[in-house]
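quick one, 401 residues, struct below
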Amino acid sequence: MSAAAHILIITSGNLSRNPRPVKEATALARAGYRITVLHPSEGEPYDGLDTQLLAGQNIRHEVLHPPSGMLQSQVRRIRRKLAATAVPFGLETISAIAPARALLARARAHRADLTIVHNEVPLWVGMKLLNAGHRVAADIEDWYSEDLQEEDRRHRPLRLLHRVESEILTRAAYVTTTSHPLSAALHQRYGGTPATVVTNSFPLQPAPEFLRADDHRPSAFFWFSQTIGPGRGIEAFTKIWSQLHAPSRFVLLGSPKQGFDQHLLASVPVEKRSQMQFLAAVPPPELHALIAQHDIGLALEVPTIPSRNLTITNKILQYLNAGLAVVATPTAGQQEVHRHAPDAITLLDLSAPHVLEELLRHPERLQTARQAARRAAEEIYCWEREEPKLLRLVQTALSSR
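---
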């Protein structure tokens, strides 16, 4: 297959909220492939951010917009609600997660040489394309059938997701995932060829400036995600942070679920509330510089949720890239990173907050951790080391029958 092969990349939402397909599309376009990225729109401001992300790149961008009419939008919402309501009664369709038929129709129309699917609904599209004889590859960033808290799983079509994952993992041209623990768990559950690990790392950014010995400002803990909400380890860390004696700041970036920011503030002693800050989300190109303004990155994944336990999120790897010391919960995925960068990462025992006091009270220890973090990014966890894996997988997939 020539380098001019057409590759279709499908993801479940706007690219400004999905960095893996962006890195993938950029790498493959740079390698000479014809790239189309297809996804449904989540509306503004994300559509505008996507346009900025892809500006100047040789990537065709196809966006599916939901019906604009009030009646059509209402019908769409009712259909999804009915599909979700039917799940506990054994009637499972992909519509319980999101509308998928239009996405499947557009994917079929492309007849690409290779279609790469990301996220749960596109994985279902990939299964349908396999059944129609298309060449399909997949990226399983999270374990979709084993994700979320129990109360959020009641109306998810879990049996269907298991079937989709099984079909993809045993029939796709290749599958990538984010960590060795997740790859091993998927292989144990479904068999097939083990998924190749392509981490959530990013291209190396400019080297950060580290603390000086005479810098006495309070160190800043930093956490970010698209949503600031319960079940993400924030409440437990806030309780620990409230008890620390060494001065520090606690900065969270993202969109709080209704009232959750006020709930967190109310749990903090009055005298520390001024040291807790909530920042609005920023466009992806601005995120690295903002992270680098802080000292300690928080990776607070919850080990009781299998997907959260096994994956390595982009969060912890962006901290390393920005030269932040990392405080991480001991999930299987984050322990994998810790084995490669033990001097950069402190595994947090929620019952032993004294380790945080030690980090805050010894600037030289914090500086050593930050330098080790950046070194780990340069030597192991950067996209420059992951991109060749992806290119080899794609080349092999396109050359196979």
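Residues 9 and 88 are 32 Å apart (CA to CA).
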